[in-house]
Write the structure tokens for this entry.
Amino acid sequence: MNDSYARLGVQMGVSMKIIGITGGVGAGKTQVLSYIEAHYRCRIVRADEAAHKLYEPGQACYQKLAALLGQEALNADGTINKAEMAKQIFHDKALLERVNSIVHPEVKRYILGEIAHEREKGTADYFLIEAALLIEEQYDQIVDELWYVHSDVAVRKKRLAESRQYSAQKIADIMRGQLSEDTFRKHCQVVISNNGDLEETYKQVKDIMGD
């Protein structure tokens, strides 16, 4: 953690370990988190879900996103149409960067607030943050450890085609925009292999947790 976040940790106590879980699309981060949630005292925040809360009318990101994306991105009730937003930003890198500059700082602020809340409650041993962009958004300043969930590219492609019905082109486009294997491994302190044998994946988690 950097100095400011370290001071925050001292003020609130440091008994709860903060873990960031990242990895490429289709790596199986949800499977790993589901196992941890079922077997350990923890709180899990998924960055995508936090962002969706912040898109709602009256929340931190709503007005800026509505103004940026225009009327065509709003539903009849005034809420943001997430499918339309995704469509607009998918092939427009400049727009994506502007959306990210609105959303990501607010998501981080929300997560810091939830960490403080959980530390005050004192009921969780672990606080886990799941997001694809933990490295890019410098979550190493917040977490105690970064975990990388790894799956081979062929395995990830198969999962995405079967579970989400993504086309080969869409899968290629998404993967092209994500970090390389080397970058994930360089920045993460823990690597979990998740190529299909879930019992082996869960055994790795238990070993890491010290069970």
User: Anything to note?
Assistant: The chain has a mean pLDDT of 91. The chain is about 55% helix and 10% strand.
